[in-house]
Amino acid sequence: MEDLTAGAAPPASGIDPGRIELYRLMARLRAFEKRAYDLFLQNLVKGTSHLGLGQEAIAAAYGVAMRADDYTFCTYRGHDHTLARGVPMAPVMAELLGREGGLMGGKGGSMHLTSVAHGMMGSYAIVGAHLPIAAGAAWSAQVRGSGQVAVCFFGDGATNIGAFHEALNLAAVWRLPVVFVCENNLYMEYTPIEAVTAVKHPAADRASAYGLESILVDGNDADAMLDVARSTIGRARDGEGPSLVEAVTYRHGGHSRADPAKYRPESEVQEWFARDPVLLYRTALEAAGAPTELFTAIEADADREVDEATEIATASPRPSVSIIDRDVWSDGGSAWRN
Fold first, then answer.
1. 23: pLDDT strictly greater than 70
2. Are the C-beta atoms of 71 and 151 separated by less than 8 Å?
3. What is the pTM of this model?
4. Domains in the chain and their CATH numbers?
């Protein structure tokens, strides 16, 4: 990944460079999602979108900890996870806008971002559908002895469907190199997860059923997330089997851009906004001795990158009929077959 802090003031000695890399990535994710929100309000984002504002530390921590050839599987709220694997901003932005220069030629949109070249193996719109697929990718890595690890992100609502339990069970039985990461933002769309779940922690409290350690982490604490990411990926790569992580976090907006999120108590919203992971991490790094100038430069670079991506994306034409028709059927055509 390009060093966007080149020329900036260096951090104080003694700070783990990985922490600075993590903040830089979080700043980029935040800047991208804020721009995606603005473009949606301008009616430029086609279809709906599910933003990761407030949840950046989770995707960023695993992005920093993963190897280039590892696999990522995520949900429709997957912009952060895609960028965290090194996918450039411009094609991601163009895909949200339904443009020819998009990651999938403008055909996938916000909910289906995929870049196999970057190990980003898909954003899945069907809740929980990707958990068994991630287990399958991990099985492939195990059989080939490649040392690759699959990391599968999903929301709290997925913990109450069959695919979650089936994937966990098989991964545990076969000791697959896969890390399951539940991004528990407290709401399964509009319903509080605690209102429909028999245990307090929908993922962590169920880990023991599959012989796994209960791992509950503050998903807004970037350092804690990085520690968990490194340890769980390390275990998987060393042949010690799967992990199930529950990262507790909070989305700043509604479930999607069509959701005003009026069902959330205002006191709860304000409490979590005060625990903004980007702000918290900058404060922690400054307290550890990193200079303010470094963060000013990092954030300016992130804004500049988003501006450039927006210009490229908006200049890209809408996909032609030939692009829209391509890859519809296995033979590459679009004619109806019966």
1. yes
2. yes
3. 0.92
4. 17-313 (3.40.50.970)
Sorting pLDDT into bands at 50, 70 and 90, what band is 332? Answer: low
Q: Which of 201, 210, 216, 203 is nearest to 241 (CA)?
A: 210
Distance CA 161, CA 142 (A): 26
CB 21 within 8 A of CB 223: no
What are the structure tokens assigned to 33, written together? 């999602």
| CA-based nearest residue to 27, from 318, 299, 214, 236 | 299
pLDDT value, residue 1: 33
Dist. CA 127–CA 73, nearest whole Å: 12
**Average pLDDT for the chain:** 93
Q: Count Cβ neighbours within 10 Å for each residue of 45-81 and write b for 16 or more, e otherwise.
A: bbeebbbbbbbbbbbbbbbbbbeeebbbbbbbbbbbb
**Which of 35-39, 96-100, 332-336 has the least mean pLDDT?**
332-336
